[in-house]
Amino acid sequence: MTYLGFHLVFLLPPLLLLLLWARPRAPRLWAYLLMPLIAFLYTTPWDNYLVWKGVWGYPEGRVLLRIGYVPLEEYLFFLLQPLLTGALLLRLAGEPPSPGPGLARVVGGGLWLLLTALGVMLLALGGPYLYLGLILAYFAPVFVLQWAFGGDLLWAWRKPLLLGVLLPTLYLWFADFWAITREGIWWISEAYTLGVKAFGLPLEEMAFFLFTNLAVVQGLLLAWHPEALRRLR
Protein backbone atom coordinates (compact mmCIF):
# COMPACT_ATOMS: atom_id res chain seq x y z
CA MET A 1 0.00 0.00 0.00
CA THR A 2 1.21 3.51 -0.82
CA TYR A 3 0.69 6.61 1.32
CA LEU A 4 -2.00 7.77 -1.11
CA GLY A 5 -3.66 4.38 -0.80
CA PHE A 6 -3.63 4.84 2.97
CA HIS A 7 -5.69 8.02 2.55
CA LEU A 8 -8.10 6.29 0.19
CA VAL A 9 -8.66 3.42 2.63
CA PHE A 10 -8.39 4.92 6.12
CA LEU A 11 -9.27 8.62 5.85
CA LEU A 12 -11.56 9.48 2.95
CA PRO A 13 -14.31 6.83 3.47
CA PRO A 14 -14.90 7.61 7.18
CA LEU A 15 -14.66 11.35 6.46
CA LEU A 16 -17.39 11.15 3.82
CA LEU A 17 -19.60 9.01 6.06
CA LEU A 18 -19.17 11.40 9.00
CA LEU A 19 -20.00 14.41 6.83
CA LEU A 20 -23.19 12.72 5.62
CA TRP A 21 -24.05 11.94 9.25
CA ALA A 22 -23.18 15.37 10.65
CA ARG A 23 -24.59 17.53 7.82
CA PRO A 24 -22.58 20.62 8.80
CA ARG A 25 -24.45 23.92 8.83
CA ALA A 26 -23.31 27.48 8.28
CA PRO A 27 -22.90 28.72 11.90
CA ARG A 28 -20.15 26.19 12.62
CA LEU A 29 -18.95 25.55 9.10
CA TRP A 30 -16.49 28.47 8.92
CA ALA A 31 -14.36 27.24 11.83
CA TYR A 32 -14.56 23.64 10.60
CA LEU A 33 -13.17 24.66 7.20
CA LEU A 34 -10.59 27.03 8.66
CA MET A 35 -9.12 24.49 11.08
CA PRO A 36 -7.36 22.37 8.39
CA LEU A 37 -5.59 25.48 7.09
CA ILE A 38 -4.42 26.39 10.60
CA ALA A 39 -3.22 22.83 11.17
CA PHE A 40 -1.43 22.83 7.83
CA LEU A 41 0.43 26.09 8.51
CA TYR A 42 1.34 25.19 12.08
CA THR A 43 2.45 21.62 11.47
CA THR A 44 4.39 22.06 8.22
CA PRO A 45 7.68 23.47 9.66
CA TRP A 46 7.58 21.00 12.57
CA ASP A 47 7.07 18.02 10.28
CA ASN A 48 9.77 19.12 7.84
CA TYR A 49 12.24 19.33 10.70
CA LEU A 50 11.37 15.82 11.92
CA VAL A 51 11.82 14.29 8.48
CA TRP A 52 15.05 16.24 7.91
CA LYS A 53 16.35 15.08 11.28
CA GLY A 54 15.45 11.47 10.53
CA VAL A 55 12.90 11.04 13.33
CA TRP A 56 10.63 9.44 10.77
CA GLY A 57 10.77 8.75 7.05
CA TYR A 58 9.21 7.03 4.05
CA PRO A 59 10.57 4.17 1.93
CA GLU A 60 11.04 4.76 -1.77
CA GLY A 61 8.03 3.92 -3.88
CA ARG A 62 5.47 4.65 -1.17
CA VAL A 63 5.02 8.37 -1.90
CA LEU A 64 4.34 10.36 -5.07
CA LEU A 65 6.66 13.34 -4.58
CA ARG A 66 8.24 15.48 -1.88
CA ILE A 67 7.80 19.18 -1.24
CA GLY A 68 10.68 20.21 0.95
CA TYR A 69 11.44 17.14 3.03
CA VAL A 70 7.84 16.00 3.36
CA PRO A 71 5.77 13.93 0.89
CA LEU A 72 2.73 15.47 -0.76
CA GLU A 73 0.56 12.88 0.98
CA GLU A 74 1.75 14.11 4.37
CA TYR A 75 0.53 17.61 3.57
CA LEU A 76 -2.80 16.07 2.59
CA PHE A 77 -2.87 14.35 5.97
CA PHE A 78 -2.53 17.75 7.69
CA LEU A 79 -5.79 18.72 5.97
CA LEU A 80 -7.67 15.43 6.22
CA GLN A 81 -7.12 14.70 9.91
CA PRO A 82 -8.75 17.94 11.16
CA LEU A 83 -11.61 17.41 8.71
CA LEU A 84 -12.13 13.86 9.98
CA THR A 85 -11.94 14.77 13.67
CA GLY A 86 -13.99 17.92 13.17
CA ALA A 87 -16.72 16.06 11.26
CA LEU A 88 -17.28 13.79 14.26
CA LEU A 89 -17.27 16.76 16.62
CA LEU A 90 -19.93 18.48 14.53
CA ARG A 91 -22.23 15.65 15.52
CA LEU A 92 -21.10 15.31 19.14
CA ALA A 93 -21.15 18.98 20.18
CA GLY A 94 -24.63 20.10 21.14
CA GLU A 95 -25.64 23.56 22.28
CA PRO A 96 -22.87 25.56 23.97
CA PRO A 97 -23.06 25.09 27.76
CA SER A 98 -22.71 27.82 30.35
CA PRO A 99 -19.09 28.49 31.36
CA GLY A 100 -17.66 26.25 34.07
CA PRO A 101 -15.56 27.35 37.04
CA GLY A 102 -13.00 30.03 36.26
CA LEU A 103 -10.37 28.03 38.14
CA ALA A 104 -10.26 25.66 35.15
CA ARG A 105 -8.45 28.36 33.19
CA VAL A 106 -5.72 28.65 35.81
CA VAL A 107 -5.32 24.94 36.53
CA GLY A 108 -5.51 23.84 32.90
CA GLY A 109 -3.14 26.53 31.69
CA GLY A 110 -0.72 25.77 34.52
CA LEU A 111 -0.64 22.03 33.87
CA TRP A 112 0.04 22.53 30.18
CA LEU A 113 2.73 25.06 31.02
CA LEU A 114 4.49 22.39 33.10
CA LEU A 115 4.28 19.96 30.18
CA THR A 116 5.74 22.63 27.91
CA ALA A 117 8.70 22.97 30.28
CA LEU A 118 9.08 19.18 30.29
CA GLY A 119 9.16 19.20 26.51
CA VAL A 120 11.93 21.80 26.48
CA MET A 121 13.93 19.69 28.95
CA LEU A 122 13.53 16.60 26.77
CA LEU A 123 14.65 18.57 23.73
CA ALA A 124 17.78 19.59 25.60
CA LEU A 125 18.51 15.94 26.41
CA GLY A 126 18.03 14.92 22.78
CA GLY A 127 18.71 11.38 21.59
CA PRO A 128 15.84 9.04 22.51
CA TYR A 129 13.96 11.93 24.14
CA LEU A 130 13.89 14.05 20.98
CA TYR A 131 10.61 12.95 19.39
CA LEU A 132 8.61 13.20 22.62
CA GLY A 133 10.29 16.52 23.41
CA LEU A 134 9.34 17.91 20.00
CA ILE A 135 5.71 16.90 20.52
CA LEU A 136 5.44 18.45 23.98
CA ALA A 137 7.43 21.60 23.26
CA TYR A 138 5.54 22.33 20.03
CA PHE A 139 1.94 21.45 20.93
CA ALA A 140 1.67 22.01 24.69
CA PRO A 141 2.03 25.83 24.31
CA VAL A 142 -1.10 25.74 22.13
CA PHE A 143 -2.96 24.09 24.99
CA VAL A 144 -1.62 26.65 27.45
CA LEU A 145 -3.24 29.39 25.38
CA GLN A 146 -6.47 27.46 24.82
CA TRP A 147 -6.98 26.72 28.51
CA ALA A 148 -5.84 30.10 29.79
CA PHE A 149 -8.30 31.73 27.38
CA GLY A 150 -11.27 29.36 27.66
CA GLY A 151 -10.58 26.53 30.09
CA ASP A 152 -13.92 27.17 31.78
CA LEU A 153 -15.66 26.73 28.43
CA LEU A 154 -13.75 23.55 27.60
CA TRP A 155 -14.48 22.12 31.04
CA ALA A 156 -18.18 22.81 30.62
CA TRP A 157 -18.07 21.08 27.23
CA ARG A 158 -15.96 18.20 28.57
CA LYS A 159 -18.15 15.32 27.33
CA PRO A 160 -17.90 16.15 23.60
CA LEU A 161 -14.28 17.15 24.21
CA LEU A 162 -13.40 13.73 25.62
CA LEU A 163 -15.37 11.75 23.05
CA GLY A 164 -14.28 14.01 20.20
CA VAL A 165 -10.64 13.37 21.06
CA LEU A 166 -10.81 9.75 22.17
CA LEU A 167 -12.72 8.20 19.26
CA PRO A 168 -10.64 9.57 16.35
CA THR A 169 -7.43 9.04 18.34
CA LEU A 170 -8.20 5.35 18.84
CA TYR A 171 -9.03 5.01 15.16
CA LEU A 172 -5.86 6.79 14.02
CA TRP A 173 -3.76 4.70 16.42
CA PHE A 174 -5.07 1.63 14.64
CA ALA A 175 -4.46 3.16 11.20
CA ASP A 176 -0.94 4.21 12.21
CA PHE A 177 -0.19 0.74 13.55
CA TRP A 178 -1.34 -0.76 10.28
CA ALA A 179 0.72 1.68 8.20
CA ILE A 180 3.91 1.04 10.19
CA THR A 181 3.79 -2.65 11.03
CA ARG A 182 1.68 -4.15 8.24
CA GLU A 183 2.38 -1.97 5.22
CA GLY A 184 5.67 -0.19 5.98
CA ILE A 185 4.37 3.11 4.55
CA TRP A 186 6.51 5.07 7.00
CA TRP A 187 9.03 4.25 9.72
CA ILE A 188 9.93 5.72 13.10
CA SER A 189 13.59 5.98 14.14
CA GLU A 190 14.58 4.01 17.22
CA ALA A 191 17.43 6.47 17.84
CA TYR A 192 15.00 9.31 18.68
CA THR A 193 12.32 7.39 20.57
CA LEU A 194 12.16 5.87 24.05
CA GLY A 195 11.39 2.38 22.77
CA VAL A 196 8.17 2.18 24.81
CA LYS A 197 5.38 0.60 22.78
CA ALA A 198 1.75 -0.39 23.26
CA PHE A 199 0.50 -3.07 20.88
CA GLY A 200 3.49 -2.37 18.65
CA LEU A 201 2.87 1.39 18.40
CA PRO A 202 5.56 3.75 19.77
CA LEU A 203 4.54 5.91 22.71
CA GLU A 204 5.52 9.02 20.75
CA GLU A 205 3.18 8.16 17.88
CA MET A 206 0.34 7.70 20.34
CA ALA A 207 1.12 11.09 21.88
CA PHE A 208 1.27 12.71 18.44
CA PHE A 209 -2.24 11.68 17.42
CA LEU A 210 -3.62 12.45 20.88
CA PHE A 211 -2.15 15.95 20.89
CA THR A 212 -3.10 16.83 17.32
CA ASN A 213 -6.69 15.71 17.86
CA LEU A 214 -6.79 17.60 21.14
CA ALA A 215 -5.66 20.78 19.40
CA VAL A 216 -8.36 20.40 16.74
CA VAL A 217 -11.20 19.59 19.14
CA GLN A 218 -10.38 22.28 21.67
CA GLY A 219 -9.88 24.86 18.95
CA LEU A 220 -13.25 24.08 17.36
CA LEU A 221 -15.15 24.04 20.65
CA LEU A 222 -13.74 27.44 21.55
CA ALA A 223 -14.53 28.81 18.09
CA TRP A 224 -18.10 27.55 18.37
CA HIS A 225 -18.78 29.00 21.83
CA PRO A 226 -20.42 32.46 21.84
CA GLU A 227 -18.65 33.40 25.07
CA ALA A 228 -15.24 32.85 23.43
CA LEU A 229 -16.22 35.21 20.62
CA ARG A 230 -17.34 37.81 23.16
CA ARG A 231 -13.98 37.54 24.92
CA LEU A 232 -12.14 38.10 21.65
CA ARG A 233 -14.11 41.28 21.08
UniProtKB/TrEMBL annotation:
Pathway: Carotenoid biosynthesis. It is a multi-pass membrane protein. It is found in: Membrane. Signal peptide: none annotated. Residues 3-88, 130-216 form the Lycopene cyclase domain. Keywords: Carotenoid biosynthesis, Isomerase, Membrane, Transmembrane, Transmembrane helix. The chain crosses the membrane at residues 6-22, 29-46, 75-94, 106-124, 130-149, 161-180, 206-224. This is Lycopene cyclase domain-containing protein. It comes from Thermus tengchongensis.
